UniProtKB/TrEMBL annotation:
A family per Pfam: HTH_3
InterPro entries per the UniProt record, alphabetical: Cro/C1-type_HTH (IPR001387), Lambda_DNA-bd_dom_sf (IPR010982)
Protein name: Transcriptional regulator, y4mF family
Organism expressing this protein natively: Flavobacterium frigoris
Domain spans labelled HTH cro/C1-type: 8-62
SMART domains from the UniProt entry: HTH_XRE
GO MF, one example: DNA binding
Amino acid sequence: MMTLADFVKEKRNEVNLTQEAFAERAGVALTVIRKIEQGKENLNLEKVNQVLRMFGHTLAPVNARELSKNEKKE
């Protein structure tokens, strides 16, 4: 499974944008992009989703027990 940091960085590079240009297009501060790409843990979900919507994705809370059940089935 790809980390959020790797996903955002890879997608941003695919569209050939700097962190600054990407932040501007996503409508967030440059520090938000930097924190995401650095793998910081204390992120604002609303801001993360604002960034992810640029690629047609969002994050939502999941139940850890359900997640581990699904992983065991695979």
